[in-house]
């Protein structure tokens, strides 16, 4: 029996929105499938560059076993973050990658903005059925992230600050 080929689903051209859960809306999705088993950062960068955007400011991926508010990780082309991404890709064979563009404005009044700006002010949960229109109550964020166990997000200062 052959191994299942690795695939990456890249969401680009959209932005993060709080509706009341945190989601990536708009844009396009491109699937890169049957990736080589020896995938490396430079090849991955060429894949992202093939989307045709020059205004990419950040990449994020989501741990497939976690909610977005605790599972989204910063992705770079260096070994510190790319190796963690690859290890999850090798295990789960399919990963979602989200592209953040430079023009993504922090329009927080309309619930839109960068991932870190919305994460810092909200308590998003993927798949939440709570659709109440009541105003959000202030939350106390407890730092339950063990960076040695969860991966390395300290490469992105905004993610670290938003989770504090």
UniProtKB/TrEMBL annotation:
InterPro entries: PB1-like_dom_pln. It comes from the Eukaryota. Residues 5-79 form the PB1-like domain. This is PB1-like domain-containing protein. It comes from Chenopodium quinoa.
